[in-house]
Automatic annotation (TrEMBL):
EC number: 7.6.2.16
Organism: Haplochromis burtoni
Keyword Cytoplasm in annotation: no
Protein name: Polyamine-transporting ATPase 13A3
Annotated Cation-transporting P-type ATPase N-terminal domain residues: 120-183
SUPFAM superfamilies on file: Calcium ATPase, transduction domain A, Calcium ATPase, transmembrane domain M, HAD-like, Metal cation-transporting ATPase, ATP-binding domain N
Annotated ranges, domain P-type ATPase A: 228-349
Length: 1099
């Protein structure tokens, strides 16, 4: 292996990194040490800020195997030390990055991450046969000490001293320190003291906030993170142990009364009812069943995502367990510590990805431009001072002072203010944010994807009708399922048993759809206690039966019967989004055989049924319902062989059960559109923001809802793109057809007249085929597609990624666990959850409708425009002050201590923070604000304002020197009251109090003009409409401007040591110059705004 070779860790994954190895070099370390001493520690500070330079300047390249230090490169560079495990005789080489250990693999010649049991590609069957008895104590200790360590998600709260050092060493505060020292040398003690006080307050506030966040996260993670668990050692031995000792491969027994899971584990025996709201934001309990151990499913390798219906996640609350006589509910530990789902969630909070937004990138470039301007001023000051034979000490101080003037130290805080105010306004309307930097991104959204059920439509479904099938044909639709005549039918039996409901504290709990279907039957669900289970047949842990008031003699005898009505649920295969179905195995009381019931998407259920049981009008009937926007669910039944025992059923895979079924009919559910949906979508479309529907529901239902809510307008056509993979030597193909059947399938040639508006509709199956076999069509299709139906959770995430690759700024709005991946991946994910903060998305709305989306976009646009306005204002402030100081340097003068204090504290900081208070504009306009600071219009705006300020400052500077009363100012000068003849008799002397020559007519004139220029550019840049409310509605800003104006008017008595008295005529002239300056600034900004087709950045 080459010494300078770069390896890739976790290729293709989210945490992909380049890694290269280094070892210390003695001669480099000596040179760096000498440089640190010679630079007074500045070199050490530079290497602290740039760790990559620090490694390369003190180390040499080596192989990864021999590395003492590794350099990691992702979006940012990181440096970490390599360690050797003290418990291994062969010295296992590893390093820790972001709370994750990476171990050296001699075979791969690279570092790799050991997450847990998945790393060995264990099959589901072998989890039962080889891992279900647990680890020996020796093997457990070996894994604990060598590889996995403590099973703990440890959030270490840093000490205040450590946080303080890290905060103070921030480049911003180091620059502040440099500036304060420089100002002290210039005797600007008042100004320096004010900046020190502000810095102390800023550091204290920052430390309090950071410490509070760490403590909150620590408390959240620490709660229930360390518990006592029952660990299986062999088939029968059980010992009590602390959860911190668990390692992948351990088997734990889940108590009947539940627990908080301390790790990720897969169920191998029994059933659990789990509350996963901590992970998904959904408070509805879910049922977890044991991992399949036989058949095709048993042969598959265990995957935590694919088998999530059998996996218990760390941090989730197991409410209760379903157990059987003499058997424990057991789970095999698969992941521990930060490798668990909860651990990865905590890692994402502790180590968030840098926000990649063009605004922040451009801000650094703009600051570099200001540094360039400072460099010009630095050279100019040196040259001018040398020409005027100024002392060397003064030259150094004044030239460095130019740098502190040009680069505004308050810029980061001022730009953050707009985001903070926007976050507060969002909270006031029920939108909570855990990633404030993404608020600016919301201002750039140009496409929003919506889930359907619970987002666009009501969360609850109403049973509209049932449509049973008998003897291969449909019966008439019936509005009630609880009729006496239907009690003993297999259709109602399927409705009563095929669900994942459970009783928690005597109340039915589970999926809202299951609740609605079960309640429509009128049946009763009973869960026996442990004592009852021990006394009776353990085959039926859950029993459903019709109400007791329905007497058997009232049931029509001609109805098909398969035994008594009371049924026990023997096995459950939970609903799978990928399979789009669920099933159960039941036994009727007294029956000698079991029955399987299935429900799911009609197309999926029909494909699993015997052909002769499916009515010939199935397709037409289904289309008729879905076109009307109904949600349709199909039911099926199968009588199982008599020889199947309970134990045999527990080991069967769902593929064996869910085949050769008998079609029972359809359940028609009405899913009403929320009242706010149509209005919000219309508002977004008027604002030129694309709206897409991404749902797991039926295609025609989704299209119908899209038409009803206005996503697809009445006269617009919908073309369904259907794709099939290659089969039997036939290549993959795409077919196109209108939903209205105006063209025969396959005849559309891809051409639509320009006058005819159309939308594509794509199913999840077709989407997968097109991405794999027709990648060149993906972007063209997505560009015009509006409805994406039958989309699996990972496909929703994939769609968001495709849109982002097309330079869309994507928003995602959803409410279910199926949307979590897409919510995280989108630029702005908005969760409609009842919880105050969702762990899945940056934004969470407390209102359960999409009215939050335009509110968020409005606030995002206002925050983005505020950032632009503040940045422009702060840049102009620096340049205006730079111009004033450069002009004063030419007469060997400068601004005074109190003048700097008045400008920076009373004017700049108050304006910068109050101009951010403008609320968002009440409407969404069709234009979007620009996203880049480096744009032609913005640069023109800044440059024209700079030139305007330069012209009027130079004008005032030259004019004052042309006045008849002008002379070099002395303490005896009194231009306000004494005639010119008396002036001519005076001898010019230097005031010992004015050795820096601050009090003079040029200083006073430029101070008045520049002070007014700050106010003028603040007003010019604070235009509101159409993204923000006008400034005259900002009461705090008006109050501040009025106060500054009052102070400005009374400036002479406020700052007596800094300014001099000037004649009344010159004061009038200054006012005229100010008015001309304001008029020129305003007219130029308006002209630029009207000239460009793009919206003005503060328009």
């Amino acid at each position: 292996m080459k010494a300078n070779e770069v390896k890739l860790i976790s290729p293709g994954l989210e945490d992909e990194m380049e890694v290269s190895g280094y070892r210390p070099c003695l001669w480099k370390m000596i040179l760096v040490g000498a440089g640190v001493i010679c630079s007074g520690g500045l070199l050490l500070l530079l290497l602290y800020w740039l760790p990559e330079w620090g490694v390369k300047s003190t180390c040499t390249h080596t192989t990864l195997k021999d590395a003492h230090t590794v350099l990691l490169r992702t979006t940012v560079c990181a440096v970490t030390k390599c360690l050797d495990s003290p418990f291994s005789p062969s010295q296992v080489h590893y390093f820790v990055h972001h709370s994750t250990r990476y171990y050296w693999n001699d075979v791969m010649q690279n570092f790799e991450l050991y997450k847990g049991l998945e790393d060995v590609n264990v099959s589901c069957a072998s989890l039962h046969s080889e891992h279900s008895s647990g680890l020996s104590k020796t093997l457990q200790d070996y894994r604990y000490m060598l590889f996995f360590g403590e099973n703990e998600i440890a959030v270490r709260v840093p000490s205040l001293l450590k946080l303080l050092v890290k905060e103070v060493l921030n480049p911003f505060y180091i620059f502040q320190l440099f500036s304060i020292i420089l100002w002290s040398f210039e005797d600007y003690y008042y100004y320096a003291s004010a900046i020190v006080l502000m810095s102390i307050i800023s550091i204290a506030t920052s430390l309090y906030t950071i410490k509070k966040q760490y403590v909150m996260l620590h408390d959240m993670v620490a709660a229930h993170s360390v518990v006592r668990v029952s660990v299986c050692r062999g088939n029968k031995d059980i010992e009590q142990a602390m959860s911190t000792e668990l390692v992948p491969g351990d088997v734990i027994a889940i108590p009947a009364n539940g627990m908080i899971m301390p790790c990720d584990a897969v169920l191998v025996c029994g059933t659990c009812i789990v509350n996963e709201s901590m992970l998904t934001g959904e408070s509805v309990p879910v049922t977890k069943t044991s991992l399949p151990s036989a058949g095709e499913e048993g042969a598959r390798s265990y995957n935590i995502e694919e088998h999530k219906k059998h996996t218990l996640y760390c941090g989730t609350h197991i409410i209760q367990t379903r157990f059987y006589t003499g058997e424990l509910v057991k789970a095999v530990v698969v992941r521990t510590g930060f490798s668990t789902e909860k651990g990865q969630l905590v890692r994402s909070i502790l180590y968030p990805k840098p926000t990649d937004f063009k605004l922040y990138h451009d801000a650094y470039l703009f600051l570099l431009c200001l540094v360039g301007v400072a460099g010009i001023g630095f050279i100019y000051t040196i040259v001018l001072s040398i020409m005027n034979k100024v002392p060397a000490k003064t030259i150094i101080i004044e030239s460095l002072d130019i740098v502190t003037i040009t680069v505004p130290p308050a810029l980061p805080a001022a730009m953050t203010a707009g985001i903070v105010y926007a976050q507060r306004r969002l909270k006031s309307v029920g939108i909570f944010c855990i990633s404030p930097q993404r608020i600016n991104m919301c201002g750039q959204l140009n496409v929003v994807c919506f889930d359907k059920t619970g987002t666009l439509t009501e969360d609850g479904l109403d049973l509209w009708a049932i449509h049973r099938a008998e003897d291969g044909s449909f019966c008439s639709p019936e509005s009630e399922a609880a009729k006496v005549s239907l009690v003993n039918t297999t259709f109602v039996a399927c409705m009563a048993t095929c669900h994942s409901l459970t009783k928690i504290e005597g109340e039915l709990s589970g999926d809202p759809l299951d609740l609605k279907m079960f309640s429509a039957t009128g049946w009763i669900l009973e869960e026996p206690t442990e004592e009852e289970t021990a006394l009776h047949n353990p085959i039926m842990p859950t029993v459903v039966r019709p109400p007791k008031h329905i007497a058997p003699e009232r049931i029509n005898q001609h109805i098909f019967r398969i035994g008594a009505c009371e049924m026990g649920i023997v096995r459950q295969f939970p609903f799978s989004s990928a399979l789009q179905r669920m099933s159960v195995v039941v036994r009727r009381l007294g029956a000698k055989h079991m029955d399987a019931f299935l429900k799911g998407a009609p197309e999926v259920v029909a494909s699993l049924c015997r052909q002769h049981t499916i009515p010939q009008t199935f397709t037409e009937t289904l289309e008729a319902y879905t076109r009307q926007g109904f949600r349709v669910i199909a039911l099926a039944h199968r009588q199982l062989e008599s020889k199947l025992s309970w134990h045999k059923v527990q080991s069967l895979s769902r593929d064996v059960i869910e085949t050769n079924m008998e079609f029972l009919g359809l359940i028609i559910m009405q899913n009403k559109i929320k009242p706010e949906t149509a209005g919000v979508l219309c508002e977004l479309q008027r604002a030129n923001i694309r709206t897409l529907m991404v749902t797991g529901d039926n295609m025609l239902t989704a299209i119908s809802v899209a038409r009803d809510c206005g996503m697809v307008r009445p006269r617009e056509k919908v073309i369904i793109a259907d794709a099939v993979p290659p089969k039997d030597f036939q290549p993959a193909s795409i077919t196109w057809h209108y939903t209205e059947n105006q063209l025969d399938e396959g005849t559309w040639d891809g051409e639509v007249s320009q006058e005819q508006s159309y939308h594509f509709a794509v199913s999840g199956k077709a989407f997968a085929v097109i991405i794999e076999y027709f990648p060149q069509l993906v972007k063209k299709l997505v560009l015009r597609a509006t409805v994406f139906a039958r989309m699996a959770p990972d496909q929703k995430t994939q769609l968001v990624e495709v849109l982002q690759s097309m330079d869309y700024t994507v928003g995602m709005c959803g409410d279910g666990a199926n949307d979590c991946g897409a919510l995280k991946r989108a630029h702005s994910g908005i969760s409609l959850s009842e919880l105050e903060a969702s762990v899945a998305s940056p934004f969470t709305s407390s209102t359960s409708n999409i009215s939050c989306v335009p509110n968020l976009i409005r606030e995002g646009r206002a925050a983005l425009i505020t950032s632009f306005c503040v940045f422009k204002f702060m840049a102009l402030y620096s340049i205006i002050q730079f111009i004033s100081v450069i002009l004063l340097y030419s007469v060997l003068s400068n601004l005074g201590d109190f003048q700097f204090l008045f400008i920076d504290l009373i004017i700049i900081i108050t304006i910068a923070f109050t101009m951010s208070l403008n609320p968002a504009w009440k409407e969404l306009v069709w234009r979007r604000p620009p996203s880049s600071l480096i744009s032609g219009q913005l640069l023109c705006s800044v440059l024209t304002q700079i030139l305007t300020c330069l012209v009027f400052q130079v004008l005032a500077f030259l004019l004052v020197r042309q006045q008849s009363w002008y002379e070099t100012w002395t303490p005896e000068s009194d231009a306000c009251n004494v005639s010119r003849s008396i002036f001519s008799l005076r001898v010019n002397v230097t005031d010992p109090q004015n050795h820096k020559n601050i009090r003079n007519y040029e200083n006073t004139s430029l101070f008045y003009i520049s002070t007014f220029q700050y106010l003028a550019v603040a007003i010019v840049f604070s235009k509101g409409k159409p993204f923000r409310q006008p400034s005259y509605k900002n009461c705090k800003a008006k109050t501040v401007l009025s106060a500054i104006g009052a102070a400005f008017t009374a400036l002479h008595p406020l700052l007596p040591p800094q300014i001099v008295c000037v004649p009344h005529d010159w004061r009038v002239t200054l006012v005229i110059i100010m008015i001309g300056n304001a008029a020129a600034s305003f007219l130029l900004e308006v002209r630029l705004r009207n000239h460009h087709t793009l919206p003005a950045c503060c328009d």
